[in-house]
Design a protein that fits this description.
CATH class: Alpha Beta
Shape: globular
CATH architecture: 3-Layer(aba) Sandwich
Order of helices and strands: EHEHEHEHEHEHHHE
CATH superfamily: NAD(P)-binding Rossmann-like Domain
Distance between the termini: 38 Å
Number of helices: 8
Number of strands: 7
Structural class: alpha/beta
Bound molecules: NADP nicotinamide-adenine-dinucleotide phosphate
Strand content: 5-15%
CATH topology: Rossmann fold
């Protein structure tokens, strides 16, 4: 097992990519704190993890608010005694956003969850990881940060900021044996996509998938499990000499499809 007796916090661990990462970590021997805003969803995933024989804790917190984040980190240390791994996964956006159509409120909200949230979680765990002289931080960005599929100015700016946060912290924390890396997923089949599809007609949905597949060199969407595999590498000692890196996990993106 690659994460035996490690303790991880996975933000947004109740659905899609975050759930895939949480379950994969648990299968590798890790105890996992499941965070999201909706506590019932978090309790369900925590129950699945406990059924595998690992410890788990469901914590409701909005990652864009420092009080909830600090409380989550303090509760994790109280319950499990340490934090080895932080996966900053909570995030997302709904719909396109051209610059002229983006309100102050939308900008603050999307930057809040996708960038400020990652900063707040890092700031809360770093003093603990520094004391332990060990830590693994994994920030989920997006291929959209370097290869936008459509204009979504707040989201892509936030995910670009995540890449800056990653390289800055990797540099600052390397002397403490804390690695900080980012994953850039391409289109992944998650609840986020399902919800978007539910708003479309069947024909629109089919056309949308066709368009997506044609843009990706591997001609298919990814699955949460495929991002979880990259996260496992970055969370385990297999990546002990890897820090400050951004790993593209987008079926070949940003290469052009044939
Ligand atoms: N799916 C893709 O194709 C794709 C592509 C590139 C990057 N990504 C990135 O991958 C990450 C996960 O995406 P996903 O598609 O798996 O999303 P998802 O299925 O919509 O799940 C999002 C998760 O984040 C939680 N969350 C949302 N806002 C939160 C907040 N303010 N505080 C705490 N938790 C919050 C949600 O739970 P609650 O609603 O209960 O809070 C849920 O657990 C995101 O950072 C996203 O930007 C996704």
């Amino acid at each position: 097992m690659l994460l035996k007796d490690r303790v991880a916090i996975v933000t947004g661990g109740t659905k899609g990519i975050g759930k895939g990462i949480s379950l994969k970590f648990a299968r590798e021997g890790c105890d996992v704190v499941i965070n999201a805003r909706h506590i019932e969803d978090a309790r369900k995933v925590a129950a699945e993890i406990k059924a595998m024989g690992r410890r788990s804790l469901a914590i409701a917190a909005d990652v864009s608010k420092s009080a909830g984040v600090n409380d989550m980190v303090a509760r994790t240390i109280k319950e499990f005694g340490k934090i080895d791994i932080l996966v900053n996964n909570a995030g997302g956006v709904s719909g396109d956003a051209k610059i002229e159509d983006t309100t102050d409120e939308a900008w603050q909200r999307v930057i809040g969850v996708n960038l400020t949230g990652q900063f707040l979680c890092c700031r809360a765990v770093v003093p603990h990881m520094k004391k332990k002289k060990h830590g693994k931080i994994i920030n989920v960005a997006s291929m959209g940060a370097i290869h936008p599929p459509a204009p979504i100015v707040h989201y892509h700016s936030a995910k670009g900021g995540v890449l800056g946060l990653t390289t800055d912290l990797a540099f600052e924390l390397a002397p403490y044996n804390i690695t900080v890396n980012a994953i850039l997923p391409g289109p992944i089949r998650t609840e986020f996509f399902t919800e978007m599809l539910n708003k479309m007609t069947a024909a629109e949905g089919k056309a949308f998938f066709k368009m997506l597949e044609n843009k990706v060199p591997m001609h298919r969407m990814g699955e949460p499990e495929e991002i979880a595999g990259v996260a496992l590498f970055l969370a385990s000692e297999l990546s002990s000499y890897v820090t400050g890196q951004a790993i593209n996990a987008g079926g070949g993106l940003p290469l052009e499809p044939q």
